[in-house]
Amino acid sequence: MATSAPHALRTPFLRNPTLSLSSKPTLSSVFPVSLSSRRRAAPRLVVVLSAAGLDAKPTVLVAEKLGEAGLDLLKEFANVDCSYNLSPEELCTKISLCDALIVRSGTKVSREVFESSGGRLKVVGRAGVGIDNVDLGAATEFGCLVVNAPTANTVAAAEHGIALLTAMARNVAQADASVKAGKWQRNKYVGVSLVGKTLAVMGFGKVGSEVARRAKGLGMHVIAHDPYAPADRARAIGVELVSFDEALASADFISLHMPLTPATSKVLNDETFAKMKKGVRIVNVARGGVIDEDALVRALDGGIVAQEGVAVEIAEAVVGALKGELAATAVNAPMVPAEVLTELKPYVVLAEKLGRLAVQLVAGGSGVKTVKVSYASARAPDDLDTRLLRAMITKGLIEPISDVFVNLVNADFTAKQRGLRITEERTVLDGSPESPLDSIQVQIANVESKFASAISESGEITVEGRVKDGVPHLTKVGSFEVDVSLEGSIILCRQVDQPGMIGTVGSILGEENVNVSFMSVGRIAPRKQAVMAIGVDDQPSKPALKRIGDVPAIEEFVFLKL
């Protein structure tokens, strides 16, 4: 409206509990938080196929009309249920059978919708730009990705804005109504020229910048306000970025293109209208909520304001999310470029497994409050994006001792909810930056360990690993250097360093038909203490583990499930 004159198919992560001779620690014993008696559905991974199994197609609920091209794209990958005009109750009933939901602006995707999904809903697609009808906090809490379609309607929205601008300047709607009423009031509806007038574009994103380009072609002087817009992009099309107050005070025309957020709600109000020129004209192709309508009426009465006047893209984003791809239009998850995802893939596996190892080494009753992650790399800090790695370490720390599924969407939220503070530090190494990382180290402070040798000299449970030939390896436990492939599961033994130990333990496992995939011994000095790390393909029985523990030279041991 306008106003004028005097808004890959992803394989699910396996969730393996800690397995040792002692009982599994509970969530409350490891993370010191109080748990509500009312249990919500656990957030799941961004991508899990429908409940019927890996071979079944996911189900996409399209709750508002979508173009045929988008529907055809969805139908190639998923079962599509087009159910329009659902009441909130009907949506909550239906959503438990759906893996994805596509809406426009008329459907409210509330917390109740995410709760009713039972954890199955993996992605919400908003066919359009604004996402104020989606409860982003609830989506993040439940591990559900939210994507929008900000580019498909960009040109159409920009052209619509220019159409409103020109129609408002020349009083097209009023003149049309006058002629249809049998009147001819040419002089009354002549309007004003746009040439030389100042247009303030409030919100210099995709639509705002396209409006600016077209307004420049009409001979207007264009200024813009957007605290997040780069100045060089504005200068490239001849637009000057100015402060909010300067934009209001200088403009003959104002074009609104900001999203509706708590910060922009009713941003045009009595105070801001008072800063504008008399007779300013406002075009709102954003959200109605960015204008205080009562204040607008007062501005109109006071003569301050004159008058007020994406199917394929969202389908591609939803299908990509269901395949496990992070869409470039994700709203509630950090964006990791595809090339970075490919490069970090083995390190993502390493990060999760180090988290799993570290938390399984915590003795029951100790509370995990503080975790430090150290990355060693030859790359400059700005060239290493660790958000995905941190999310996977969080996943490894939390999932083995809880029933919560953690992913990139809800990792930080889940850690904060459980009182888990994760800090990161980076060590810049000399050498070639060809590989993104040399090693990752995970330390848990102020806890006791069920394997005392995992405590480093500085007093933290410490595990460290690196990627070798694309395979993650455990390279350090406590102060002991080891080298074992992180495949299958691991037995750690602290022993007196003496001949025959590898053979003794290997024989026990062989008699139990447990295959050893890798074995490594790290020691302080010959004939002193050593730590033996044994990779096994299968889970040894409790009697087999007891036999290992009964070997006289073995001082302690632990079995860790990856």
UniProtKB/TrEMBL annotation:
<comment type="subunit">
    <text>Homotetramer.</text>
</comment>
<dbReference type="GO" id="GO:0008652">
    <property type="term" value="P:amino acid biosynthetic process"/>
</dbReference>
<dbReference type="InterPro" id="IPR002912">
    <property type="entry name" value="ACT_dom"/>
</dbReference>
<dbReference type="InterPro" id="IPR029009">
    <property type="entry name" value="ASB_dom_sf"/>
</dbReference>
<protein>
    <recommendedName>
        <fullName>D-3-phosphoglycerate dehydrogenase</fullName>
        <ecNumber>1.1.1.95</ecNumber>
    </recommendedName>
</protein>
<dbReference type="InterPro" id="IPR029753">
    <property type="entry name" value="D-isomer_DH_CS"/>
</dbReference>
<dbReference type="GO" id="GO:0009536">
    <property type="term" value="C:plastid"/>
</dbReference>
<keyword id="KW-0028">Amino-acid biosynthesis</keyword>
<feature type="domain" description="ACT">
    <location>
        <begin position="490"/>
        <end position="562"/>
    </location>
</feature>
<dbReference type="InterPro" id="IPR045865">
    <property type="entry name" value="ACT-like_dom_sf"/>
</dbReference>
<dbReference type="InterPro" id="IPR006140">
    <property type="entry name" value="D-isomer_DH_NAD-bd"/>
</dbReference>
<dbReference type="GO" id="GO:0051287">
    <property type="term" value="F:NAD binding"/>
</dbReference>
<keyword id="KW-0007">Acetylation</keyword>
<dbReference type="Pfam" id="PF19304">
    <property type="entry name" value="PGDH_inter"/>
</dbReference>
<keyword id="KW-0520">NAD</keyword>
<dbReference type="InterPro" id="IPR045626">
    <property type="entry name" value="PGDH_ASB_dom"/>
</dbReference>
<dbReference type="Pfam" id="PF01842">
    <property type="entry name" value="ACT"/>
</dbReference>
<dbReference type="InterPro" id="IPR029752">
    <property type="entry name" value="D-isomer_DH_CS1"/>
</dbReference>
<comment type="pathway">
    <text>Amino-acid biosynthesis; L-serine biosynthesis; L-serine from 3-phospho-D-glycerate: step 1/3.</text>
</comment>
<dbReference type="GO" id="GO:0004617">
    <property type="term" value="F:phosphoglycerate dehydrogenase activity"/>
</dbReference>
<dbReference type="Pfam" id="PF02826">
    <property type="entry name" value="2-Hacid_dh_C"/>
</dbReference>
<dbReference type="InterPro" id="IPR036291">
    <property type="entry name" value="NAD(P)-bd_dom_sf"/>
</dbReference>
<dbReference type="Pfam" id="PF00389">
    <property type="entry name" value="2-Hacid_dh"/>
</dbReference>
<keyword id="KW-0597">Phosphoprotein</keyword>
<dbReference type="InterPro" id="IPR015878">
    <property type="entry name" value="Ado_hCys_hydrolase_NAD-bd"/>
</dbReference>
<dbReference type="InterPro" id="IPR006139">
    <property type="entry name" value="D-isomer_2_OHA_DH_cat_dom"/>
</dbReference>
<keyword id="KW-0560">Oxidoreductase</keyword>
<comment type="similarity">
    <text>Belongs to the D-isomer specific 2-hydroxyacid dehydrogenase family.</text>
</comment>
